[in-house]
Amino acid sequence: DAGVIQSPRHEVTEMGQEVTLRCKPISGHDYLFWYRQTMMRGLELLIYFNNNVPIDDSGMPEDRFSAKMPNASFSTLKIQPSEPRDSAVYFCASSLSGSNEKLFFGSGTQLSVL
Amino acid sequence: SQQGEEDPQALSIQEGENATMNCSYKTSINNLQWYRQNSGRGLVHLILIRSNEREKHSGRLRVTLDTSKKSSSLLITASRAADTASYFCALNSGNTPLVFGKGTRLSVIA
After folding, report:
1. What's the CATH number where B45 sits?
2. From A68, A85, B23, B70, which residue has the greatest number of CB atoms within 10 Å?
3. Residues of chain B above pLDDT 90, percent
């Protein structure tokens, strides 16, 4: 398996633009997580899905953020409109059975909002 | 949900020395996991230790868990320059997702 695949690897955009981050989890994994990493706040959980259903989105900063998982092999995280404070590295991770087992992380998307 | 606290925040050692990192937490856990992150990359899982386990080994890695003290340690023996990375502990409590600490930045100098 190729592991968790995220795209794009880097994204530079201007304030106010829409940003869409993509993730393909490992086949057969039932859980998908979106994390955001910054120097100040460390690694924060934004939202996670179980069998394509959002379970907990309490970590989503505000209404500008939305996430979907239309099928078992694809998820998106959208920011509209983007702001400079959204600049961070966004990670997608998947696992077989939630946090009782290990998470497999993608390489992340480095987002810069100018 | 609780966050583990790693100590020290940064550690610099010579190649061949052992590196020890600690993680403390406040409430009961189901399991505790250690991850490594190389600069500019995603996190990689190292070891998972469950609350009823006290010690686990994987190659040059040794993890201990003391639930009475609510702490865990990660020991890397005979360190190499390639071990330079950030190391995170992550806590699983109940049905909540993993919560990661701020990490320990390890520098191994050749």
Report:
1. 2.60.40.10
2. B23
3. 85
